[in-house]
Write a structure and sequence with these properties.
Elements: H1 8-32, E1 51-54, E2 57-61, E3 65-73, E4 91-100, E5 105-111, E6 116-122, E7 128-135, H2 147-160, E8 168-172, H3 175-183, E9 187-190, E10 207-210, H4 212-220, H5 230-254, H6 258-266, E11 270-272, H7 276-288, E12 290-296, E13 299-303, E14 308-312, H8 314-325, E15 326-328
Parallel strand pairs: 3-8, 5-12
Antiparallel strand pairs: 1-2, 2-15, 3-4, 4-5, 6-7, 8-11, 9-10, 13-14
Helix pairs in contact: 1-5, 1-6, 1-7, 3-4, 3-6, 4-5
Amino acid sequence: MGKSKRDRSKYFKYAALVFVIIFFISGALLLLRIWDKQQGEFPVYESEEIAIEFGGKEYVLKENIESFLVIGLDKKADFVSSDSYINDQSADFLMLFVFDNTSKKFSAIQINRDTMTDVNILGVNGNKIDSTVKQIALAHTYGNGKEVSCRNTMDAVSGLLLDSKVNHYISFALDSVLVFNDLVGGVELTVLDDFTGVDDTLQKGQTVTLTNEQALKYVQSRKGLEEDDNLSRMERQKQFVNALYNKTLQAVKKDENFTVDASLKLAEYIVSDRSVTQLREFANKFTEYEFLGICDINGESKKGEEFMEFYADIDSVTELVVETFYKLKG
């Protein structure tokens, strides 16, 4: 089904880190009272008699499924005016968490930011005026750089996954990497790629404790590297998040005030459709539900006229959607 063969405990650490971040953020929003509770919300959808055929068998939508899209942006938190309908913030990182509230299990789908799919073109009021096929990362560039852009990204992800429902979102500005890396005193890891010419202090195979700027280059860079496709960067992002999770646990055990300090410093870097209480509910699910692992979509990367383009294999997408959102009929 396209699942990675990495150790399952590492995947749990990845999910747990998202829980830690959401906990920090929700606490900060509560303390600062700056959460906008009037943002649009997407209800949990009920089971519908929607059938899909795959492998000679008929499947229907599972009951009580809820999904949460995590969006990592490629720009810092200088969000554009809410009056604008276009911005330059792309989604560098996309991961959809899907919760089965009946079985108490959840899984994650990591989406290549170069994936070619239908993207909505929005008008000045945030309404759809057309659509075009382009990298899914660019869906966020339409809209106000906040809620509208996140919802447009949700629509693109939903379309890629055969119109599967995406219920909620949370986005993180690029600055959050700098802030979090600084909070834990730097992340230690073994460099996976050759950064010669980009940052000569990052030598392949060397174990280093990343400074803030090194951390930013490590999770964002691909131009100028020997392996300049997004697949290599996705591996570095996974590695960084796992290492960051471990340092975060150490910091929490060492300093009882770490959570509060981190909350205050991270609050300005996120956008979400969830209230504080709802974020806490999701945080609980990360620890209470059984984690089934992270799934990848198979496909092929090609050099386009300007950028790398990833073409998802339709059979891989269908198989993944059926496994995640559907069950056998009858």
